[in-house]
Specification:
single chain; alpha+beta; five-stranded antiparallel beta sheet; eight-stranded mixed beta sheet; 10 helices
């Protein structure tokens, strides 16, 4: 008999409708139709115009001096520009605004924390060294430093007046009970201590599944709360109450502790859920650039005890002997299990699974029945597994087991589902053996046409793409690409190409589109995706193996032109693109000629490269030219923070020479202002080499490098 079907479920009761834009000659036209740097640049300029108008009516400073922290374009086509207020070049503490634009570029609303009528002398009277002495003069031995102090100048709005202050942070991170990061705001004119707080809001707890772990908590008065106000997540105790049939009702209370050492028996499941929520948040933010479930630290359902910010809730000890966990009404909820089928369902992969249901709801929102429901469950399994691997620091054999730590605690080595071998637990591993292959009316009795069973088909496809292997039914062998690339492809497919009704065939198309975007249609990753779906019976296998980037064939020169597709028209091919900081558009807003171009940078802390392998005959002139455009939010006129390198490498990728280096210092005001660049590569005549563009970005403030109309003769 098939084991439990409804575990790790997503409660679905509400329908979400989305508007569409109709192209009418007299109607507003949607302009934020893609999440590209060009559209972000447009959103930034429109937002600055709005802030300039705002500054004509309110005394908020000069918007052109504000720091553009980031621009986000959401699934509805709205743009959100986050800015930090600066006065005379000095940041205003907590002075921020978010300008929200409709899809047609018109103003929607503004989240406004800008400080009005700032009045302060912005020239300090004391030095940073003196500020450090003032900050530490009252400290006891407990506050001795283990790291370099962090000292920054801010404008601080106090209760009585505005002040110029040094924010002085003196970390003590030594593993002792006194580990802390005290912060003092020192008046830069008088040396007076204006305010203090501890920037290390970390507690420890004894978990059920992960041992003793560090968790981020908050403090209000004498109490510590299991609430992370940075990630904006909190964990709450349902006290074994609540309606287990509907997922509603019950008594919810805050977890509190007097010494921030969470060892109480009823807190252990809470520690697991809190730790799992943090690891899930960190995975999505660090790997996919997503700030939580909805991309904006939400959706919050309650407020934090410490500062009243909206936080996303995880609820533990739900019901009595409740063998389930679910995502519902923007909350994660975990039962304790009955001790036989399940122990408390708060393992890392289950936490990642349930929170991913929230991500799915805020992106593709796949209907929770039939094949779309199976994909909904599958993507939750996939990213729950990736969260577990992230928390563990590496992919292992345990990664591919679903719920293994909580499932049947009396039986070692088993799991609820297995991505590596679904057949071992009675689940289908090929489309031909799926449950309910014909007409099916979804109901709870048939698990809504097999959402928790047929999910194993795409689970196994992902496993084969990531780890490699041979499908039991088809006998097709897949060469794995690694979990990182596979996860990037599936995430982009989910958030860009999948819709509420996507079925298995549609998921194959979506992941192939994502692989093309990220790695190119001739890449090894694209071939692995196509082969992985074929192995589980969805679509056909590639008929001709596609070469890997290191085996890219040398393009055949056309006339005296040696580069193929130097204008980047229609596709990136035969250029080879890799890394998170390299991009391509076939129909962009800012080409030098035609419609396509390559571009680099865009995001913080990324690298990326695009190259073409070319044979340079001895009869060539050996002249490389291309057009370059650089736009940047950096304001410095002296420091190169973000860079683009023009390189010649051998066919194995070893650097032979750097022809040129460009940076944020080369920025221009317009995204269409290109400059012709020229280099002599005659030294490489008679050789086969790679012509490569490579970017590196620092950790804050973005730059975009656009390359078009490349030529080598």
């Amino acid at each position: 008999m098939k084991k439990l079907l409804v575990t790790l479920s997503i409660a679905v009761v509400a329908l979400v409708t989305f508007g569409i834009f109709v192209d009418r000659s007299e109607a507003n036209v949607a302009i934020f139709t893609s999440n590209s740097q060009d559209k972000a640049e447009l959103a930034k300029q429109l937002s600055l115009d709005i802030l300039r108008n705002e500054s004509s009516q309110r005394v908020i400073g000069i918007p052109d001096e504000f720091e553009i922290k980031r621009v986000e374009i959401d699934q509805l086509g709205m743009a959100h520009t986050h800015v930090g207020q600066r006065i005379n070049g000095i940041p205003v503490w907590e002075g921020e605004a978010i300008v929200h634009l409709n899809s047609d570029g018109t103003f929607a609303r503004m989240t406004d924390s800008l400080r009005e009528n700032v009045s302060v002398n912005t020239t300090p009277n004391i030095s940073q060294k003196e500020a450090l002495r003032f900050a530490t003069s009252a400290y006891t031995e407990k506050a001795r430093q283990t790291g370099s102090p962090i000292i920054d100048l801010f404008i601080y709005r106090g209760e009585d007046r505005d002040r110029l202050v040094y924010r002085v942070e003196t970390p003590r991170v030594d593993g002792s009970k006194d580990t802390s990061a005290p912060v003092a705001f020192v008046d830069a004119h008088t040396g007076e201590i204006v305010d203090r707080y501890d920037n290390l809001k970390t507690g420890t707890g004894s978990s059920l599944y992960s041992g003793t772990v560090n968790i981020t908590t908050s403090q209000s008065g004498a109490n510590f709360y299991m609430e992370d106000t940075t990630r904006r997540m909190g964990t709450f105790n349902m006290n074994n109450t609540g309606n287990t049939s509907t997922g509603t009702g019950g008594t919810q209370s805050r977890y509190t502790d007097a010494d921030d050492n969470w060892t109480a028996t009823n807190a252990r499941a809470g520690v697991d859920a809190h730790y799992g929520a943090a690891k899930t948040f960190d995975y999505y933010q660090s790997v996919h650039g997503r700030n939580g479930i909805d991309g904006n630290y939400g959706p919050g359902t309650t407020t934090a005890a410490a500062n009243g910010v909206s936080i996303v809730a995880s609820r533990v000890h739900f019901g009595s002997n409740y063998n389930n966990a679910f995502w519902y009404q923007n909350m994660m909820t975990y039962g304790d299990g009955n001790g036989t089928t399940f122990s408390p369902l708060t393992t890392i992969d289950i936490c990642g699974h349930e929170m991913t249901h929230g991500v799915i709801e805020r992106s593709a929102n796949m209907t929770y029945s039939r094949e779309s429901g199976a994909l909904n469950e599958s993507f939750a399994d996939i990213f729950g597994s990736m969260v577990e691997a992230y928390a563990d620091g590496a992919i292992s054999s345990q990664t591919w087991l679903i719920g293994e730590d909580a499932y049947t605690p009396g039986t070692a080595g088993d799991a609820l589902r297995r991505m590596d071998n679904p057949n071992a637990v009675g689940d289908p591993d090929h489309y031909s053996v799926r449950l309910y292959p014909g007409t099916c009316t979804p109901s709870s009795g048939n698990d809504y046409c097999g959402v928790h069973t047929n999910s194993s088909i795409s689970n196994h496809a992902f496993y084969l793409m990531a780890a490699g292997g041979t499908n039991r039914v088809s006998g097709v062998t897949v060469t794995g690409m690694g979990g990182t690339d596979a996860a990037r492809i599936f995430y982009r497919a989910l958030t860009v190409y999948m819709t509420a009704s996507t079925n298995f065939a549609g998921a194959r198309t979506a992941t192939l589109n994502a692989a093309t975007d990220l790695f190119g249609g001739s890449s090894a990753q694209y071939t692995t995706v196509a082969t992985g779906w074929c192995a589980v019976g969805v679509g056909s296998c590639p008929t001709t193996p596609t070469p890997t980037p290191t085996a890219t064939p040398t393009p055949t020169p056309t006339g005296t032109e040696l580069l193929v597709n130097g204008g980047f028209e229609s596709s990136i091919s035969p250029w080879v693109m890799s890394g998170t900081g390299a991009f391509y558009t076939a129909n962009g807003n800012s080409p030098q000629a035609g419609t396509g171009y390559a571009y680099f940078g865009v995001n913080n802390s990324t690298t990326g490269q695009t190259y073409q392998t070319v044979s340079i005959p001895s009869t060539a002139t050996g002249t490389l030219t291309f057009y370059l455009n650089v736009t940047s939010s950096e304001t410095t006129t002296t420091t190169q923070y973000d860079r683009l390198f023009v390189e010649v490498r051998n066919t194995s990728g070893t650097l032979l020479t750097t022809l040129g280096t460009y940076s944020n210092l080369n920025k221009v005001a317009s995204t269409t202002a290109y400059t012709l660049r020229s280099f002599n590569v005659a030294a490489y005549k008679g050789q086969t080499v790679r012509i490569q563009f490579r970017s590196t970005m620092d950790s804050s403030i973005t730059t975009t490098f656009r390359v078009d109309s490349a030529s080598l003769k």
